[in-house]
User: Fold Cyclase from Lactobacillus acetotolerans.
Amino acid sequence: MKVLIGGYTKNASKGIYELGLKGNGENARLGKAKLIINVAGPTYFQKDGDLLFAINNAGNKGGIKSFKLTDQKYHEVDKYLTPGASPAYVGIDRKKKLLYTANYHTAVLSVFRYSSDGKLTLLDTVKHIAENLGPRPEQMDGPHPHFFDETPAGNLVSCDLGNDSVDFYHLSNDKLEHLASYKNESGFGTRHIVFSKDGNYFYVVGELSSKINVVKFDEESWSFESIATYSTIPNSFTGHNGAAAIRISGDDKFIYVSNRGNDSLTVFEINKDHTLKHVQRVSAFGKFPRDFNWDPDEKYVVAANQTSNNATLYLRNAKDGSLTPIQKNIAVPEGTRVIFTK
Assistant:
């Protein structure tokens, strides 16, 4: 098994790195990071078999690039770049061969179709407008969509940090139609979202508030009911923190969130009524952990620490959700995105 980590390329990083994972249980270890794709600013990327789709910051242009693994090397296939900043997120539907990008700076959501060879075709875009912007400095300059991906029923959902909103769309005849919006509390800084398996609840994390909001919803009537809200950081923490990635375990029993500033991963257990119980807050053993991810069996977790240029490997307990660090200070530059792969 291997781990791919990409991120900013402002300092030492040159693109996307590969780290081999060997051993088992507490003896598992990640090897030395090896550059496999030279690309500027791959802060988020997705894989589909031998294809890889990465965000690309190309100076005064930004967008996505596609790569194909051939003869054990990744070769660039296609790119779609527009003037201005690059997107912050790219989602994927491997069955429909669709990609979804959210551009934090330009407030544009885009949908692409890709071929089996990795060729990209832009289908549609929408631009978020300012609607009751939040009061925090990061929100006052406009809408900031930070996430765009699919819902359990196959619609699309965006998280907008500037508007404190979760927006739902439908893609029909390659065109986006806005369906509904859910408004988080003012100053929440809506960033990323995960859904329960039954599709009746979502858990949305606020970057600016360092909170998780649990919401019951109906994807047919578009009714929303806020169930509860929880802090991802201790009440005693007074420094600056930005909550980042959120993940839900495959058995619907645990929620995980990364904290940039408190520099930790917070674990919650999901109760039967979908409220949350705090389980653990474990150090990231580095600074500014933006993304983390697990292997297909959810046995191992890797967190990438962007500003300390390192990663941490954890062993996950499936029964109680807890994380045990088994390897620290794994050298990898400016990491913001983690994927496990074969």
About this structure: The chain has a mean pLDDT of 97. The two ends are 5 Å apart (CA to CA).
